[in-house]
Amino acid sequence: MTAFNWIWTTYFMAVASLSGNCIELTNVALLKPAEQSSTKLGDFGGAHKAVDGNMNTHISHCTHTADDSVPRWWRVDLLERFYVHAVELTNRGDCCSQRLGNFDVEVSAQNPLVANSTLRHVCAHQDTSIPQGATVRLDCTQPISGRHVRVLLYKDDVLTLCEVKVLASPLSTAPVTSGLFRRLPRSKASGDVIGEVMVASVTKCATACVTEPRCTAANIGPPAAPSVMQRACELVSYGGIGQDNSFTAADDWQCLLMTA
Ligand SMILES: [Ca+2]
Fold first, then answer.
1. What 3-state class would DSSP assign to 210?
2. Which 3 state secondary structure label does DSSP give 226?
3. Neighbours of 31 (CB within 10 A)
4. Is the pLDDT score of 117 beyond 90?
């Protein structure tokens, strides 16, 4: 195992106050950026059609992958981390309902396609096909903190989704929050810097990232001076669709990449 792959783990516990026992869930996927493993006929089967709010189940209002490798997938970038409780999927109504079966719904903090992000959490698995034109709710086995939701179809068939709703709550409503980071020495994550704080320790920088819903990576600089404990901590929105998903080499820096 190389130093680069060394897993650095830290957990943060925060008790949030809940009003009653009921957490209100909202669809946080509506009109968010989406993409898929391939698209048939240009915009005809575009990934955005699963989050456009249109519940029409005719294929002209649904996504449609082309013939590419298995598993075929579709994903949405929620733009910030939420607690994902459940997903509602609407199947095609005019044909071919048997295609939408044997798939996983997974949740991850990072773009699941980016190198160095290996931890993904399965929210739910659906073995049988969703009936033609039906909407089915799949509850996660437990709420999962994450920014990216992906549907993976494990058979050699077209992946079509007419609408996907991600039912989630804000991080602040969760009774427990936890963070798991991978430490990348001599690296900085690219992406949008959404804030910078001065901290006295790596742990404090990680805590700052966990408590900022848009933060999925933190870049930690060297001490400002040999006698000074304080160091820069950049909070980065990393791994989004259309964002710079690269790392740059930086000798005196280290990156904490949120993986869950
Ligand atoms: Ca739709």
1. helix
2. coil
3. 10
4. no
Q: Which of 153, 158, 151 has the alpha carbon at shortest distance from 50?
A: 151
Write the single-letter amino acid at 103: F
- The single residue listed with the structure tokens 């437990």 is 142
Of the CA atoms within 13 Å of residue 94, those in its CB half-sphere come to: 9
C-alpha 144 – ligand 1 centre gap (Å): 24
Please give the distance, rounded to the nearest whole angstrom, from the Cα atom of residue 30 to the centre of ligand 1: 10
Report the 10 Å Cβ neighbour count for 37. Answer: 20
DSSP string, 126-193: E-SPPPTT-EEEEEEEEEEEEEEEEEEE-SSS----SEEEEEEE-GGGSS-----EEEEEEEEE-SEE
Separation in Å, CA 116 to CA 1, 101, 184, 219: 14, 29, 9, 15
> In this structure, how many other beta carbons lie within 10 angstroms of the beta carbon of residue 58?
12
Can you give the pTM of this predicted structure? 0.84
The token pair at 69 is 């490798």
| 201: its two tokens | 């320790």
At 8, which amino acid appears?
Answer: W
**Cα–ligand 1 centroid distance for 176 (angstroms):** 33
Residue 1, pLDDT score: 38
pLDDT digit string, tens, across residues 120-165: 789 999 999 999 999 999 999 999 989 999 999 999 999 999 999 9
Q: Give yes or no for a contact between 34 and 241, defined as CB atoms under 8 angstroms apart.
A: yes
Q: Three-state DSSP class for 48?
A: helix
Q: How far apart are the CA of 55 and the centre of ligand 1, in A?
A: 5
Of residues 226 and 107, the one with the higher pLDDT is 107
Render pLDDT for 85-99 as a digit per residue (tens, 0 to 9): 999 999 999 999 999
Q: Assess contact for 26 and 167: CB atoms under 8 A.
A: yes
